[in-house]
Amino acid sequence: MANGNGSADKRxxxxxxxxxxxxxxxxxxxxxxxxxxxxxxxxxxxxxxxxSKEQMLNEVxxxxxxxxxxxxxxxxVELDSPREKLGAAAGFIIESYRHNPExxxxxxxxxxxxxxSFGRTHLSEIRDAYDxxxxxxxxxxxxxxxxxxxxxxxxxMLFYGAIEQLLTGWIFEVVPASDEDYExxxxxxxxxxxxxxxxxxxxxxxxxxxxx
Length: 212
Known about the structure:
CATH class of the largest domain: Mainly Alpha
Oligomer: single chain
Low-confidence stretches: 202-210
Order of helices and strands: HHHHHHHHHH
Largest sheet: none
CATH superfamily of the largest domain: Tetracycline Repressor, domain 2
Number of strands: 0
Number of helices: 10
CATH architecture of the largest domain: Orthogonal Bundle
């Protein structure tokens, strides 16, 4: 692979063009020639930097997903309450959509929902994100801040499920997507999850139910 800033810039331009083409046409309908045209480069130059469009999609996903994983790790270390930690995770995802909706459309539609293809390829990375949210929930349960009758894994599924449905609504333009809507969504996702998990008074002598 070629080195130097010029090469890095061309590689980035091709990858950004791939995001736009995948978002517009869908991964399976996209051709390398479409990506080359979108990037304004020769067809052969694409293969100088990438072996295939599959490699491009893999890199698009892993690049953004690694940032998400790091954002959750950082929130878990630096913030105090589980509500703040989950709020930071939800905020990162929603802000990612706000600033680059085409990229997030590609990640949601072409990877995380593609269980039989790219989703399976990236299962360990996807699982890592779920595990990090589950850890935040589990730690809060041990500290007595969250109820213990909902398993951390189940709570993590609800957390990501709520956010994915929001993103899907924005992607397909079936729910409003203004700046105000994005800010409201950050609050509502956390309130919905934390509101269901935070401890409430339990009558004396009533044992906790077993986790779901």
